[in-house]
Amino acid sequence: MYVAVKGGERAIENAHRLLAHERRGDRDVPELSLSQISEQLGLAVDRVMSEGSLYDRELAALAIKQARGDLIEAIFLVRAFRATLPRFGTTEPVDTGAMRVQRRVSSTFKDIPGGQVLGPTFDYTHRLLDPGLAQGGDPEAPALAETSDVPMPRVTDILGRDGLIEPSPAAETDAPVGDLTRDPLSFPAGRDLRLQNLARGDEGFLLALGYSTQRGYGRNHPFAGEIRFGEVEVEFVAEEIGFAVPLGSIELTECQMVNQFKGSATEPPCFTRGYGLAFGQSERKTMSMALVDRALRARELGEDLIAPAQDEEFVMSHSDNVQATGFVEHLKLPHYVDFQSELGLLRKLRQEFAEANAAPALKEAAE
Amino acid sequence: MNAPTYNFAYLDEQTKRMIRRAILKAIAIPGYQVPFASREMPMPYGWGTGGVQVTAAILGPKDVLKVIDQGSDDTTNAISIRKFFAKTAGVETTTSTDAATVIQTRHRIPEAPLRAGQVLVYQVPIPEPLRFLEPRETETRRMHALAEYGLMHVKLYEDIARFGHIATSYAYPVKVNARYVMDPSPTPKFDNPKMDNCPALQLFGAGREKRIYAIPPYTSVVSLDFEDHPFTRYKFDAPCALCGAEDSYLDEIVTDNKGSRMFVCSDTDYCEGRQAAGHRGTESVAPHKEAAHG
Amino acid sequence: MAPMTIELQPGFADKVLSAQSTFRTVMEAMARPGQVMVVGDEVGGPSSMMPGVAAIALTLLDQETPLWLDEAFLRAPDVGAWLKFHTGAPIVGRSDAASFALIAEPATLPDLASFALGTPEYPDRSTTLILQVPSLTAGQTFHLRGPGIDGMTALTASLAPADLFARLSINEALFPRGLDVILVDGRSLVAIPRTTRLASSGV
Fold this sequence. Notes:
A: 367 residues, four-stranded antiparallel sheet, 41% helix
């Protein structure tokens, strides 16, 4: 006697109830608040905002809590919510040159106008686990200095003044802003869409690809021209008003790589650019992004296409961790119908193989 | 906090219009993959986001929706998608193939013949039939443009050379309206003949790959083959152990640790319908029914 | 010229559900070429625009669909404003840049090759023509075949331009490029996608 499997609906409900229980963990331990996540796991929040393409610390913190700390799951939650939001328009381009900088380093010049600012960084920490932190307690208050009004021009602007680096492409103000979440992607893609794809792309994927270019798979001689992190104003021109109004400020990390120079019989040689930008403090992400952006410009700059990081279709089709995790994880869905089909075919092929190999033996025996 | 509110059938109207326009072009160019701006859905890519977007764009309050996965209404993903639409669109749902106006499916075509006026929506993981022969979209799009399908025939022929058969048992490529080679989604090739000259409209949605395609009713759908190696439908040796059907696609059930097997219909609605009509197999017992689906 | 104040007609009473039911009508029509389908929902629109055309416009057009209008629609004072208000579709002068073309007087339909015909790689990037025709119930009988048609179907209609099917024969040579056409008479509509062929015609 056989009874077909039923009861999936109740199983799903119970599974989700158990999930909620496990998420909460030991109920004797105080529950995490969103502000705890936002304040104390700030870099996780930054990553979820960046790859989730939504600047909202509270929602990102909620997503991290709901996802039990699984950041790709949290990014997915934020993306699904974002897809339902109405569009009012696009903001004016942000001016990272006017950033209120918290951190700014350049590896190309010893000193630069405005100076090098280390800011909050893991750099030069000795990676020794801190038992004091396990106990908790307030750290020392930060050392403060007067805010300076000295402008901090971008290093690439300094190079650009002498024509040593290619000019940044000028925005066509009338051209619509490309958006791969609203239009299906086709190849070849413009740099705007490539950068959008990379900005939303998985940090680990970009890190590995960027690293591969450093090891020779599409090498392009990068120097970290500048990495800066801080606050910028966001402005929006409403059609009814006719001028730009500030919407508020956001934290951004920008990385400008200075790369391999180009030149020709008609153009003097100059350095080329790779660009990275992300919400919050996301240095690893923006540096990787800048390396990959530069690698993806290979065709435009007349370089040989030899490495994965230079392959636009390969990079753009596989950078999105929400897409990737969905498709990898879908393998756990039932596939027994197609598996059965393969099983049937395989059995038939094996039977034919056995018959074919048995036949000569029979023939020999008969002789 | 920005508490979310959702539209009828979840998608906003602008998104629905975009998908609807893509569906119309897909019907007008049978078997051609129309790019569309697939949205991020509240379920993972690869779990039916394409099918769900197509269903959401066509579904109305008068529809009766059936959702199957592997032929069954009771697999967890089918339940999850059915509940999604019951919640967001308030539509009536059913497990009956005959009562449904819209059927969303993953990996099967129902055994009961479909009729005019019904819409079958397939969930598609990889819409490009040439993808595993040529990974580049720029290349495969050119091949479709030129109807240059030699690569596919070479692949099928190599199968024959190596195995004596075309070694493709599901997602078996078809040619639609004598023009486009199309991926029927990972349905077993057993189901391929049902697509040909079908009275119902067949729509295919691939969310992650951002493609929609269609087979209009009464359209020729031919499984690729060779004269000396014609397409054959997979045939089971045994009838269904529950309803005795000899013409249906069967699931293989492992019944103990000694390797015992039994075969039962993958289309649960078909099987239950036959049992209700008095058909019996060797292992017959009325499967207990869960309370009405939400 | 003094600015004219135009009282704009409303569109659908229920935007969401009427768009859904109209879409299903259009989808059924596209899936069953030659068969007359009827738009059921109440719809307002400019006086020179048939209710079927207004319903299709409200259902399928928006900011993302460049729209081409024939002279008659362009001249009608309320059509452009109504379309802009209800759909936001940008009205374009070049017919080959249009996703949709609305044609009030199809007798003066320009050369079909002047519309977007799609490309071999992207044949879907073509104009969908929506024509107001004299009748979809009386007139000449056209026998049609192609995908969506069980063998052969007969369409009895009074068409404009009279040689529409002859002109649509470019679809056969161009396929998969081509034009998809929706014929409208009041609330009735018939779709002639690019795959539909004229088998024969008689009186």
